[in-house]
Design goal:
The chain is mostly helical. It contains 6 helices and no strands. Helix 2 packs antiparallel against helix 3 (53-76) and helix 3 (53-76) runs antiparallel to helix 5.
């Protein structure tokens, strides 16, 4: 081992760093999380249409807290698949912040869509806006998270 040239050592360290970054880019939340979030989003849309405002507001706060806890627990294990678990140093400590930011962004999209649908005269605008966002979350959640992580280098 004493015969390793500095260039060989640098090449090996660079390869290890590239592999670490590649694994870190694949850390995320399981597909089931995104479909659960989508179903809950639709449930909130239904509640906004049929329940008293205080109940819909309470459910929304519960939704946010529940998904924040669930996402942080899932991300704390830093699992990409059932067979992969990496350290927090590899996974990145900003990923939970990205998930919360994504959740807030989706709330904004839902509110804007509901306002646009309501202005257009749609019945149950909140429900339709929730369905729209739920489809986006269910089908594209992991990809959106991956792009956001790349943008903020998390």
């Amino acid at each position: 081992m004493d015969d390793i040239a500095p260039e060989q050592a640098r090449t090996a360290l660079d390869a290890a760093d590239r592999a670490r970054r590649q694994v870190a880019e694949e850390v995320g939340l399981p597909r089931g999380y995104w479909w659960t979030m989508a179903a809950d989003w639709i449930l909130l849309g239904v509640l906004s249409s049929v329940a008293p405002p205080w109940l819909a507001g309470t459910a929304t706060v519960g939704f946010g807290m529940g998904h924040a806890v669930l996402a942080s627990r899932l991300l704390d294990g830093r699992r990409r698949t059932d067979r992969l678990q990496v350290s927090a140093a590899v996974a990145g400590r900003r990923v939970p912040l990205v998930v919360v930011g994504m959740l807030l962004g989706l709330i904004g999209v839902t509110v804007l869509a509901a306002l646009a649908l309501d202005a257009d005269g749609a019945d149950h605008a909140g429900l339709w806006a929730a369905v729209l966002v739920a489809v986006v979350v269910g089908l594209g959640g992991p990809e959106i998270l991956r792009v956001l992580r790349r943008w903020v280098r998390a």
